[in-house]
Amino acid sequence: MKAFRSSGLEQVDVPLFAANEPIAITGSRAQRVLQRRINQGVAEYEVLNTLEQSWGGLCTHVREGWNIDKPCYGYRAKTSGTPARPRRPRA
């Protein structure tokens, strides 16, 4: 992931705050930078964790025989009924 790069706003003394940062200009700049880096690390972890979980679910789905995409050219998809209950007829 790319490192956080502040725009020219901080160069003209306009502070930048994240949504979960306390809006306190009195704290040290080092403290704000540390908090921002911690938040970036947690966000990167969440992204990678979500990707791994979704990939694992996709692999399980395919192993169980569910077709998740169009079949290759020249092949016909084997259709099966949906496991969901049929909907009520509309009035």
Order of helices and strands: H
Instruction: Choose one word for the global shape.
Output: elongated
Question: Cα-atom Rg, whole angstroms?
Answer: 24 Å
Terminal CA distance: 52 Å
The amount of helix comes to: 25-40%
DSSP strand (E) fraction?
A: under 5%
Helix segment count? 1
Rounded mean pLDDT is: 76
**SS class:** mainly alpha
- What does the largest sheet look like? none
Poorly predicted spans: none
Number of strands: 0
What does this structure look like?
It is a single chain. With 91 residues, this protein is mostly helical. The chain has a domain at 10-63. It has one helix at 29-63.
TL;DR of this structure?
The protein is mainly α and 91 residues long.
Structural key phrases:
mainly alpha; 0% strand; 91 residues; elongated
SSE arrangement:
Layout: H1 29-63
